[in-house]
Amino acid sequence: MKRRELLKGMAAISASPILTSYALEGNLILGKHDALIVVDVQNDFLPGGSLAVSDGDAVIPVINNCMKLSQAKGLPIYATRDWHPTDHCSFVENGGTWPEHCVAGSTGAQFSEDLALPNNVTIINKGTDKDKEAYSGFQDTDLSDQLHKKGIKRVIVGGLATDYCVLNTVYDALTNDLDVVLLTHAIRAVNVNPRDGERAIESMIERGAEIHDGLILAN
Ligand SMILES: [Zn+2]
To answer: Considering the domain 3-11+20-217, what is its CATH architecture?
Structure first.
């Protein structure tokens, strides 16, 4: 399906389950220039956490499967995480908009125990400067350099949350000349406003991301 038709279809239909019906057809075949970026699957963003994303844990089995296939293919896996100082500007008590979350070294900042990160995963810490918000895994990190040095041309992205850190990570990947496949079955939104997640997906598509919710084949 052409991207324009896809957008037209999405604009006409506002119910969220429809989004996945517009995913590009066929299996996603992983190639040697692909890398997987797992965004912020941390305890504070999961049910029970201080900034829990509704149904956030649903992304874990899908991402685990992607990691297994990526590993089998020898593709690099990057896991981003919010890694904030206690006086971070994004926290309500410091004048920001979010409850305290993902304080460096805390249990809330740890990746979910259910997330099967391989030993050779590359962890990308972000939001480490108290004066700067960092939704994107590319912001003030060397993620772009690392990807380009490895000859990566396309990143496969899943994680939390669709309307903030996934959105901005995808934007920056595109800005950094990478193709992007967004795994729509491996993301969940905060939805401060009810359609934020859908709008985020539409916006990522508009900027050039492909979306996918089907099987991933490793060869
Ligand atoms: Zn944060």
So the answer is: 3-Layer(aba) Sandwich (3.40)
